[in-house]
Please model this.
Amino acid sequence: QVQLVESGGGLVQAGGSLTLSCAASGNISSIYAMGWYRQAPGERRELVAAITGGSTNYADSVKGRFTVSRDNAKNTLYLQMNSLKPEDTAVYYCAARRRGGTFGYWGQGTQVTVSS
Model:
């Protein structure tokens, strides 16, 4: 099993920045990829960014503004969010998956609110 705990959410003005963190524990060696999802009220959960080894991918809506990174020594995943927009407001979830699997491990989520 893998446990994921997010932190770093909050309220920020449009144009501001936030950094989310996700601390992983448990069977860390089983993790192949990690990512950040978000879900706004009334919307479907969507993939924001993911990292697999040295490769990253981003939703078009956040490219150039968000950066995902992973510190394996600290078992921590980060999401640096710059130039935030009100439409970035959502609950952000950390997720992890095994090789060949889908994202099956989830954190509890952290709220990000961007005011205009």
